[in-house]
Amino acid sequence: MNKVLVVSAAMGEGHNATGRALEDAVRRLWPDADVSWLDTLDVMGSGVGPLFRWIYVSNVQRTPWLYEFFYRSLWRHRWFATASKRFVGVWCGPRLGRRVEDLGPDLVLSTYPLGSAGLEWLRRHDRLPMPAGAWISDFAPHPFWVYGALDLNVVMHEQAVPPALKCVPEAKVAVSAPPVRAAFTTGDRDSARQRLGLPADAFVALVSCGSLGFGDVEDAARELLAAHPGVVPVVVCGRNDALLRRLRPLAEQDPRLRPLGWTDEMAAYTIASDVVVTNAGGATGLEALACGRPVLMHRPIAAHGRANAQLMADAGLAVVCETDGELAGAVRTLIAEPDRWKAMAEAATRHCDSTGALEDSLRALAGVAHAV
């Protein structure tokens, strides 16, 4: 394998995090491979990235009902999902095709659904002769994620296979280990805490709601502090500086709270934690899964966040906390009933042990012979 292309997008950090994990796996498999990247939104045109990021943030924070309406419409009306994907494919495909032809990859890996739409357009127009696959980094697939013309659609859990096939019955779907970097592993909790300066005997709750710090993060911190005197919340604010500023006075009042800005130590903090609190279930949820940590989904964000939360709960990997007090109650239950916490942690570890490694999925995809 000489050349590999990763098609991603800077829409938060989740899609790029999946791409980096795939790049690491590629380099383990084929050390001499040349790995190139394309940002789908940049390919689609000047100004598209900032516009789409503004639309996404606005929908999640200000008009979640509109985001939910669009998401549900994709499921309820097959014609709407098909038309939406084809529109994006026509917009993205020709532009993406010129870049793919220039780069000449032997293998294409997509981590962003709009990029996958463009790749499907290329495949249907006989302009994508090399194997191409989509890594669905949300725990719950939705119709914009899955493409029948691609050689492989990779989901993160057996529970995700039926909804993926419901999206596109003819799609080729496989289950893979979470696409996270190798540093995210079960690890040594005590050593991680010692290195990070966290108390060895505390119940550490890592709160991470993506690089943009979406949702009711401040409320989550307050609930965790009120849940039990042994709880130490570590809140990663990412690039949300306003959130970090709001949390600092609370940390001064109760020094158990550890607010952090952007950090490159997410793997260490995840290993050091007892549970991970999040609200979307994308990259953060997958990193928790890889580390064998239970997930508490606190007031999941609209659309894909709620779908991810429900599917993770169905798989025994998460507890969904929708209303005031539920997060604190869930933490108190886990502290009082450690067997329940252990069962969720073991379910995560068992899943990661039973699924094929990222390298297995890459080998399977690379072995596809596609004739145009």
TrEMBL record:
Keyword Glycosyltransferase: yes
Subcellular localization: Membrane
Domain Diacylglycerol glucosyltransferase N-terminal: 17-179
Signal peptide range in chain numbering: none
InterPro entries named among the record's database cross-references: Diacylglyc_glucosyltr_N (IPR009695), Glyco_trans_28_C (IPR007235), Glycosyltransf_28_UgtP (IPR050519)
Assigned keywords, A-Z: Glycosyltransferase, Transferase
Top-level taxon in the UniProt lineage: Bacteria
Keyword Transferase among record annotations: yes
Pfam family, one: MGDG_synth
Gene3D superfamilies assigned to the protein according to its UniProt record, in alphabetical order: Glycogen Phosphorylase B
Domain Glycosyl transferase family 28 C-terminal: 205-348
Name recorded for this polypeptide: Glycosyltransferase
Organism ancestry: Bacteria, Bacillati, Actinomycetota, Actinomycetes, Pseudonocardiales
